[in-house]
Design goal:
The protein is α/β, with parallel strands linked by helices. The chain is built from six helices and 13 strands. 22% of the residues lie in helices and 18% in strands. It has a six-stranded mixed sheet with strand order 1-5-10-11-12-13, with helices on both faces. Strands 2-3-4 form a three-stranded antiparallel sheet.
Amino acid sequence: MSNYRLVDLVICAAAEAWHDDGEVLATGIGVVPRLAASLCMKAINTDLMMTDSEAWLVSEPVPLGPRGGYQPRVETWMGFSRIFDNVWGGRRHAMVGPTQVDRFGQANISCIGSDYRRPKAQMLGVRGFPGNSINHANSFFVPNHNSKVFVAGEVDMVASIGYNPARLPKGYTFADIDIRRIITNLCVLDFEGPDRQIRIRSLHPGVSVADVVSNTGFPLCVPENIPVTPEPSKAQLDLLAVLDPRDLRATALGA
């Protein structure tokens, strides 16, 4: 197909992150992750669970934007206490949008600048990210792949666990950490390189290895043969039109 946008391809690629999860709670934070989880629930992993982003578990993903006459198909109550049961039990896979990521997969959503008392820029704060990253699977979405996001050293504020042997909690090994994929506007990355080195999993159409490497602040595992990220199918594009009837995804990559 040729009548699709980059954001559509990115959403479809991100949806694959939950492919083999079975019945877990998917949490997509932001437009692209939310649509990716919704697409996965509808067409890839139909056992996936989602909430209405308020307090209910739903039978089908709730479309983005004002709901108008749409009534969510509610299965059961899913308040904070039940969310935390899923989090602590590891039955959740979230996709978040960090401001910085380092070579260990440690992510920063808190602040820019090494002086926490006077940061150059203040974001959300670490919030629940440390506990979430330890307790359940996480993936990342990065709308603009560049070396300011994929930093050369450690992230300015370590807000989540990563494959950093120097920061592992007592008794932890890499087997206790579950960072799945990073989906960007250039490629899909994973942590399946040697010693959990970040690896190029696929390249989006028209993107070269050099494009990815030059926009990443640390060395990547570059396999000999790297597939091209699959283009969206007509069925996937039709689903996205239903899941995002107001086309909120149109500017999700900053375009």
